[in-house]
Automatic annotation (TrEMBL):
<protein>
    <recommendedName>
        <fullName>ABC-type polar-amino-acid transporter</fullName>
        <ecNumber>7.4.2.1</ecNumber>
    </recommendedName>
</protein>
<keyword id="KW-0472">Membrane</keyword>
<dbReference type="Pfam" id="PF00005">
    <property type="entry name" value="ABC_tran"/>
</dbReference>
<dbReference type="GO" id="GO:0005524">
    <property type="term" value="F:ATP binding"/>
</dbReference>
<dbReference type="GO" id="GO:0005886">
    <property type="term" value="C:plasma membrane"/>
</dbReference>
<keyword id="KW-0067">ATP-binding</keyword>
<comment type="similarity">
    <text>Belongs to the ABC transporter superfamily.</text>
</comment>
<dbReference type="InterPro" id="IPR027417">
    <property type="entry name" value="P-loop_NTPase"/>
</dbReference>
<dbReference type="InterPro" id="IPR050086">
    <property type="entry name" value="MetN_ABC_transporter-like"/>
</dbReference>
<keyword id="KW-0547">Nucleotide-binding</keyword>
<dbReference type="InterPro" id="IPR003593">
    <property type="entry name" value="AAA+_ATPase"/>
</dbReference>
<dbReference type="InterPro" id="IPR030679">
    <property type="entry name" value="ABC_ATPase_HisP-typ"/>
</dbReference>
<keyword id="KW-0813">Transport</keyword>
<feature type="domain" description="ABC transporter">
    <location>
        <begin position="37"/>
        <end position="271"/>
    </location>
</feature>
<keyword id="KW-0029">Amino-acid transport</keyword>
<dbReference type="GO" id="GO:0015426">
    <property type="term" value="F:ATPase-coupled polar amino acid-transporter activity"/>
</dbReference>
<dbReference type="InterPro" id="IPR003439">
    <property type="entry name" value="ABC_transporter-like_ATP-bd"/>
</dbReference>
Length: 275
């Protein structure tokens, strides 16, 4: 457990050391009070490679936004900018009216409000499912062991793993491990959930259970930004679909508009290849 704690402290220190250098804070523009995330003129470069170019997106409370696009289009980088796992090169991102690109942003506090689920599960192999869900609650939110355990068990039940709380990750399927990762994020009581290709590493028969949990979250009103290639999920659950290519938003609209009546030739070509 000491080795795990040391590793967590090391990771936390690395994340906390990330400094946001893109700009000084500026007053939030006049936003609709229902806008929870506002991305404005977002840019991100890695050296000379420009990955995001003038991305502008508003996400409303309770909205499910699905982001599509080919590999290298900037989808995942955009998500990682929203919770500052990547530092924007330019532009502004507002979360609940506050400019998170301000260099004074408390990154750890920000991440308690924005949950993220990755393609890889990132579970600690020597901790049980319950202990994995408890860890960040104890380390970051300073919850008591009793409170963290109660919340962990509650969230594991919600994702259908109430009877697997004491199982080790190696005893769980890939889909079950991903559901533990979702429970871990939800235990922090976030206001927004980001999903970055959460099902792409899973065997096809395990995808359904994870998508089922995500659909339940959508029905409960969780604000979600989802990068995925699961077209069925996008059609059934999304309020809005965004297609990105070359680091910009090429097209956006309702699922019906984007899938059945795409206007941009690049969108048509992409959808034609995955149909």
């Amino acid at each position: 457990m000491n080795k795990v704690s040391e590793k967590v402290d090391e990771i936390s220190a690395q994340m906390a050391a990330t400094s946001v250098k893109v700009s000084s804070a500026r007053p939030a523009p006049q936003l609709d009070e229902n806008v929870i995330v506002s991305i404005q003129s977002l840019q991100k470069s890695f050296g000379d490679t420009e990955v995001l170019r003038d991305v502008n997106i508003d996400v409303h409370r309770g909205e499910v936004v699905v982001v599509l696009g080919p590999s290298g289009s900037g989808k995942s980088t955009m998500l990682r900018c929203i919770n500052l796992l990547e530092v924007p090169t330019g532009g502004h991102i507002y979360f609940e009216g506050k400019d998170i690109t301000d260099k004074k942003t408390d990154i750890n506090k920000l991440r308690t409000g924005i949950g993220m689920v990755f393609q890889s599960f990132n579970l600690f192999p020597h901790l049980s499912a319950k202990e994995n869900v408890m860890l960040a609650q104890r380390k970051v939110l300073k919850r008591s062991k009793e409170e963290a355990e109660a919340i962990a068990l509650e969230e594991l039940r919600k994702v259908g793993l109430g009877d697997r709380a004491d199982y080790m990750p190696s005893e769980l399927s890939g889909g079950q491990q991903q559901r533990v990762a979702i429970a871990r994020a939800l235990a922090m009581r976030p206001h927004v959930m980001l999903f970055d290709e959460a099902t792409s590493a899973l065997d096809p028969e395990l995808v359904r259970d994870v998508l089922g949990v995500m659909k339940d979250l959508a029905r409960e009103g969780m604000t979600m930004i989802v990068v995925t290639h699961e077209m069925g999920f996008a059609r059934d659950v999304a309020d809005r679909v965004i297609f990105m290519d070359g680091g910009v938003v090429v097209e956006e609209g309702t699922p019906e508009a984007v899938f059945d009546h795409p206007q941009n030739e690049r969108t048509k070509d992409f959808l034609g290849h995955i149909a």
